[in-house]
Fold:
Amino acid sequence: MTIAVWILGDQLLACHPALAPYQEDKARVRVVILESQARLRRLPYHRKKLVLLVSAMRHYAGYLRANGWQVDYRIAADALSGLKAQVAEQRPEWLETMAASEYRGRLFQHSLPERLGIPIRVLANTQFLSGRYDPFPDAGGRQRVVMENYYRRMRRHFRLLMSEDGEPIGGRWNYDAQNRKPLPKEIAAPAFQRFEADEITRQVMLEIEQAGVGTGEASGFDLAVTHAQAQQALQDFLDHRLGLFGAYEDAMSAEQAVLFHSRLSPYLNLGLLEPLDVARRAEERYLMGNAPINSVEGFIRQVVGWREYIYWQYWRLMPDLERQNFWQAQRRLPEFFWNGETQMDCLRHAIQRALKDGYTHHIERLMVVANFCLLAGVDPQEVNAWFLSSFVDAYEWVMAPNVFGMGLHADGGMVGTKPYIASANYINKMSDYCQGCIFDHRQRTGAEACPFNYLYWNFLIEHESQLRANPRMGPNVLGLSRLDGDERRRIQAAAQQFLEALE
Ligand SMILES: Cc1cc2nc3c(=O)[nH]c(=O)nc-3n(C[C@H](O)[C@H](O)[C@H](O)COP(=O)(O)OP(=O)(O)OC[C@H]3O[C@@H](n4cnc5c(N)ncnc54)[C@H](O)[C@@H]3O)c2cc1C
Structure:
């Protein structure tokens, strides 16, 4: 009798835990990889994301075969019919699989014994460090756990940037104050490594385009699709961009989309890179004296802090998380999110980048796109669906806490301690967008005023009592006391006019 091992499309681990026990007994196992047509069509996903996923899965099948595994690569209408076909053909003793990182996927896995009529072993997910160590195992449902505390425990446990006596190397946990610089005109980030599409990828691009599935363009696809290429992308980041990652982490530029960011999220989320390995490789650069502490700590904070914290929060807060709407925001997502046609320069750049390549860096996602949606009162479910569709690194586990939590504060403060809201002043400080924009970042009201300004103040007025209740919002609400009645009315009228025009 044989065993079927189902490997999910975003679990392309070099050492998969369901295969490890059978290394010496490979003939007993048939690996099944499913290309579910229904899953690829669940939302209008960016075609570059679909190409990435499908091409990486097909390359992975080749990688396993080259390592001696029997692989059944099935293109099926949906996952269930694919698994049923596998069971009918193979007649395995049981099916093994690693727990899905997404909620619905995991429910589906647990429903399989009944649907397939054979036993299923669902192994623990090893793709995340928080699957190996839970820093807050006793945190109850609505208990607040802030990212900083979570991150420190992760650093201690995995001994990242820690001295022998258990103190953070460099004497501090946090170098945020050094990591908020705008980009000087004379600094250009080195071009990041692009990967030419091979025959498999070209075939996938053709199929996706011919099937008319998804949105955006597959052409220009340049992402890594194998472990080896993902390692090259990591090396490229460590060699050329890590050094200035920290300093310009929050900077935005009309000319440069990636700046000194790693662009590694698509590979981490597919299992092509392993988070601890990525973090250790960055740490090594600091220990060898090749990268400054603010950059290395800042990067490790993202990978071992934010990324793990987000996954941990997802599993703590689901399924309610996706139903949260703290501000009661009901507006439909404006049409320009699908074509990028807005006169606001910052928003146009960020949206057009997402529509073209499925990538913008964190600050554009958070402080431009999500900030706009929060201030404009867009329905969180619509925002979530847009982000899920538009980004090459998007998966439900990472999107829900980032959109409902961090980006929109729709969860009432479980993921972030305060809403990330800002007026044009912040965007002007951190970018060169405002210089070329028809709106004036200094004006609060009037025909030329930047919409971020009156939307920001309007949000403070509208939600004053909720914001006052948050101690971290003190400085923001303090500004309200400087507005007289007339100015408040002008702000509200400008916001209302703008929001009505959106509809
Ligand atoms: C509204 C919103 C939507 C987002 N959508 C996604 C998404 O679909 N997929 C995704 O992977 N990340 C998402 N993020 C988090 C973050 O913006 C991206 O991980 C990051 O921009 C990816 O680019 P990079 O690889 O160049 O990141 P870098 O700036 O180089 O950071 C290094 C790594 O840290 C991790 N990371 C940093 N912040 C986060 C975070 N908040 N959540 C999870 N991982 C983090 C990522 O793996 C990233 O590759 C979102 C954030 C917000 C606010």
